[in-house]
Amino acid sequence: MKSIKGVAAAVLAVGLLAAACGGGDKAIGSAKSSNPANGGSDQGTGAHKKGGTVTISNVAGQTWPCQFNPFNPAVNAEALGFVYEPLVFTNVLKSGATTPMLASAFKWSANKESIVFTIRSGVKWSDGKPFSGDDVAFTFNLMKSHPALDLYSLWTGAGLKSVAASGNKVTMTFNRPAEPYFYNFANQVGIIPQHIWSAAPAAAKPDTWSDPKPVGTGPYTVGSCSANNIEYVANGSYWQPGKPYIQKVEYPAYLDNNPANLDLQSGKAQWGGQYIPNVDQFYKSKSPDNNYWYPPTANVAIVANNDPSHKVTSKLAVRQAIAAALDREQISKIGESGYQPAANQTGIVTPTFNKYFDDAALSSSGYAKPDTNKAKQLLQSAGYSSSNPLKLNIITVTGYTDWDASLAVIKQQLKAVGINLNVQDMEAQSYNQKLYTGDYDLAYSSLSGGPTPYYELRQLLYSKNSAPIGKQANSNYSRYNNPDVDKAFDDYASASPDQQITLLKQVEAAMIKDVPIIPTTESVDWYQYNTKDIAGWPTKDDPYAQPAPYNIPDVEQVLLGIYSK
Q1: Burial class (CB in 10 A: 0-12, 13-18, 19+), 162
Q2: 218 near 82, Cβ under 8 Å?
Q3: CA atoms within 13 A on the CB side of 151
Q4: Distances 238 to 40, 65, 153, 257 between C-alpha atoms, Å
Q5: Looking at the predicted structure, is the pLDDT value of residue 485 above 80?
Q6: Given 3-state DSSP classes, what are the helix, strand and coil percentages for the chain, each rounded to the nearest 5?
Q7: How far lies 154's CA from each of 8, 101, 424, in Å?
Q8: Nearest in space to 164 (alpha carbons), one of 102, 129, 103, 115
């Protein structure tokens, strides 16, 4: 199983990120590992010979559509990091440390309402054309003129006012303090070439353009693509000397965890990103070269459609009943073999973010433990009973066997309170279409996080990340709309660290009161890696990037760090 939008994990406090991104003229130093041979990115040193192939085993739940639009959340995990690069890489696993990418330095204004990036010189697009600050300004201004591209609501929610290039400088101006958004605009937006995207066919509909032969600045180009496999080949004109070491990346399209797991077990694939039952016995014990590491990330949740057009799931009592009925510890133990801990209704991942967690609010909410009697009473108040049971559909991605196992447990638990849950496994493209446009009642889903709970919760709950039914939402797929919650997110950027905790506790209170989504387990990065021929992997001791192959843009850092022995 992978996240529907694999970006970066939620691990560290924003104060640490703020320090890494802070004021003054900030040159972005190399994120060289203390032990490159065991998992460091040693950028630009050319320390190893070029050669070798890495095969990724990660269940996408679909065959490849061979589209690489970096603004399309259904396909951008195959584009960002491989082909397209951000201005800065921010590693939330290492205190928000920054790594130079397409910007070599940045400087915040004293009030944090503007930032100036120094754009790296000597970089070329993979078609040989020069890269410049004009491409950066074009990328962000295209997001303004086509809001569907603005996946993090930078123009509509973060207060972005202007982006302008002058020589090798790009200035971004906001209408309020914007430091927390650095993680989004510097780290998660892939820069695109103006000469490609300002011309046909991209210019006509950039949000829906398939981008079948992407031109980027990244370490790889798309050598070939079929429904069954993407082959990436090293970009011969990549700007980091001697990089990438690995010359080919094969990315087969797996529709189910089982064959993907077998390829990992045998060593046919070297880099994995999915759930493996009994991982020590099935995978680790088969070879001393087989390794895994599962760092914590965000939440897996039942996303309820809150839009009034969905007559059942828009009822608060129905959502409350589902939340009250769930035994999350059992879902964790049976559905995820205990590898993913039980989540809680506040949406705060613990113990990672304990400083933000309102334990008292959860304890008094009635959702800290399963309560079948409360669930039955709530359903009765909504007009349902044993003689008139509630029937609900929930969509999920075919091939995500851990989700299937978790949903089997959830189905059993809901049946005990009078809800008949019908699990609808579907191919990922169909799932995404329904999820993004609001064509569902319940969906099983997982998004990425960030340096504090703010990033995941803002994606999930901020109304400007939503859209009317039938239109594509960027991340607030539940269509939740609460002005008080929006204000808490807006106020967060200019708040002190203590005030930020208070604001997030206000969001937690809304999660408990309104139950817009229902967290079930705390997501982890599923990450398996084989060291028989490939070295340089991120490890618990050297977490130079989020390690799963579906994490963007972290995937690039891993591809720049690994090499063939």
Answers
A1: middle
A2: yes
A3: 24
A4: 19, 26, 31, 34
A5: yes
A6: 30, 20, 50
A7: 18, 21, 34
A8: 115
DSSP per-residue letters across 261-282: HHHHHHTS--EE-S--TTHHHH
Cα–chain-centroid distance for residue 360? 29
Taking each continuous run of H as one helix and of E as one strand, the counts in the chain are 16, 21
Residue 433 backbone phi and psi in degrees, to 5: -60, -45
Name the E strands within 253-370: 271-272, 290-292, 296-304
Instruction: Sort strands 229-234 and 220-225 into parallel, antiparallel or unpaired.
Output: antiparallel
pTM greater than the 0.85 cutoff: no
Place of tokens 């009765």: 380
Alpha-carbon distance of 128 to 143, in angstroms, equals 25
Q: Looking at the DSSP assignment, which residues form a beta bridge with residue 97?
A: 91
| CB of 57 closer than 8 Å to CB of 274 | yes
Bridging pattern class, strands 271-272 and 528-530: antiparallel
What would the two tokens of residue 546 be? 């989020």
User: Does residue 500 sit in helix, strand or coil?
Assistant: helix
pLDDT in the model for residue 3: 41
Q: Report the distance separating Cα 451 and Cα 95, nearest Å.
A: 9
pLDDT at res. 385:
85
Comparing C-alpha atoms, which of 512, 533, 303 is closest to residue 395?
303
Q: How confident is the model at residue 17 (pLDDT cuts 50, 70, 90)?
A: very low
pLDDT of res. 490: 95
Task: Give the tens place of pLDDT for each residue, 189-224.
Answer: 999 999 999 999 999 999 999 999 999 999 999 999
What residues does 391 pair with on adjacent strands? 420
Stretch (H or E) spanning 375: helix 372-381
Between 29 and 252, whose confidence is greater? 252
Q: What is the chain's alpha carbon radius of gyration, rounded to the nearest angstrom?
A: 23
Q: What is the pLDDT of residues 124-149, one digit of tens each?
A: 999 999 999 999 999 999 999 999 99
Question: How far is residue 462's CA from residue 455's CA, in Å, rounded to a whole number?
Answer: 10
**72 band by pLDDT with thresholds 50, 70 and 90:** very high
The average confidence (pLDDT) of the chain is: 91
Instruction: Describe the crossing of helices 497-514 and 453-461 by its angle, rounded to 10 degrees.
Output: 40
Residue 340 DSSP symbol = S
| Whole-Å CA distances, 514 to 289, 319, 344, 539 | 48, 8, 14, 39
DSSP symbol at 463: G
Residues 6+ apart with CB under 8 A from 351: none
